[in-house]
Amino acid sequence: MLWTIFLLLNGLLILVLLYSTRTRRKNEPPLDKGLVPWLGHALEFGKDAAKFLSRMKAKHGDIFTVRVAGHYVTVLLDPNSFDEVINDTVRLDFARTRKQHLRQIFGLQLPSMEPTAQRRWMEQHFRGLCLSKLSSSMTGHLQSLLLSDHKDCGPSEWRQGGLFSLCYSLLFKAGYLTLFERRDNAEEVYNEFRKFDNLLNKVARDSLSREESKTVNSSREQLWKLLCPSWLSGGSETSSWQQSYSLFLQEQGVDAEMQKRALLLQLWTTQCNAGPAAFWLLGYLLTHPEAMEAIKSELRCLHFQENPTINPLESHSTPVLDSVLSETLRLTAAVMINREVVQEKTLLMSNGQRYRLRQGDRVCLFPFLSPQMDPEIHQDPQIFKYDRFLNEDNTPKDKFYKDGKILKYYTMPWGAGKNMCIGKEFAVTAIKQFVFLLLTHLDMEMCDPRDKLPPVNPTRYGFGMLQPDGDLRVRFRLKTKSYEM
Ligand code: HEM
């Protein structure tokens, strides 16, 4: 018995050593395995990916391979070379990693579903007439939630709260009511979802403590129950985005249990980014008075009194608000674009160098570091400049350069290529509408004018919009006269 254990351990040790003795071959990117066998840089990566990858960039340049929990990940940080990864759908694959994530995070398996079918369905439902119906329903819900939130307050009575909680809960609930059309449980779904969302990074990295694991499992179960509409369990309900999504899953041969679980995936995809984005945007405005003044003066020029049935944001362009949104997303959207190398590939960099990528490795683009925080592209990249995306004549600025070359990707909050955000237009409209409603209906100020924006939670890099570590205390009241700014 002892001998068997001894031999097994020896075998395991040899395997670990063999695996960790990988060396850099000719034409491969610089290799950095880290000191810990198998784990490599996993701990540093999970703790603060932006800090870790900045350190690697300073050491190795725009391309390097790191070992992370048994995987070799080639990180590419030159936006002029991104298309080599984004456009290669033959040698690089994203479906396998995605499937793994769906199973791990959402307990979801969709074996019968054609991989691109879901995306096609989503695209149909977030454009044209469907999009304008969804957007106007969203605006209606935002307005009524904002006003009903204040119905018990006297006319000039101030209320206090955290800006993040305010933005996340209002946008989440309005989005939920728009897409899921359930009026009875929005508050409960929001509270349960926040518990799940708070632990999402740990679920994805498989690093939950036993207690956290219990919380996630119970939240997930609870959300599956709360989201399950009566018509999935035999009843009937009005036709909604959610209902037509479930019908689509049925047509794809997805069973009732997986249909229920897929609703949580869609809740997360559609509701987890807009609230945090609105928080950062308003937070930057509150902490940068010159930006707030520029936005207010742009909004004052909109002729919203002319015809109250026409939405002023639809009938007027708002270049300053657009620039503020782009600048906010540049600073706080931190997606990672991951691919698996399914066939050996030679990657051609924009500087003419070629690198070999090994089959079985992973490739990762992290646009947050470059282009978004790259000082060669954006001067003083850590600083919020509300007019960064404006030309002098107030037209949108879309020409940025690196190494003298004009950039196709100068900010990438929405991802790129085949995985690009499908809800971009819906999200932009919703966030702008939310900011507009807040500024035109509420007086809002920081509880302590000396406060600063909270820092970002560094464990959320790679999961879309960043979230703050803490909140910004604000006080607000209904304006006595709407639209007076
Ligand atoms: C500020 C807000 C948002 C940001 C920054 C954002 C960003 C992103 C990014 C980066 C992706 C690609 C993810 C990947 O490569 O894995 C994505 C995908 C997607 N987003 Fe968004 N998003 C936002 C809001 C929304 C909203 C409001 C909706 C819908 C109501 C939405 C719907 C989707 C869908 C359906 C996908 C596709 C997922 C897939 O390919 O399966 N997004 N989003």
- Which class of the largest domain in CATH terms? Mainly Alpha
- Major beta sheet, strand line-up: 1-2-3-10-7-4
Q: What is the C-alpha radius of gyration, as a whole number of Å?
A: 24 Å
Q: Helix content range of the residues, please?
A: 40-55%
Poorly predicted runs of 5 or more residues: none
CATH topology of the largest domain: Cytochrome p450
CATH superfamily descriptor of the largest domain: Cytochrome P450
CATH architecture descriptor of the largest domain: Orthogonal Bundle
Average pLDDT figure: 92
Number of strands: 15
Which descriptor suits the 3D outline?
Answer: globular
Note the total helix count.
19
Biggest sheet descriptor: 6 strands, mixed
**Please, how many domains?**
2
Q: Which secondary-structure class do the elements indicate?
A: alpha+beta
Give the percentage of residues in beta strands. Answer: 5-15%
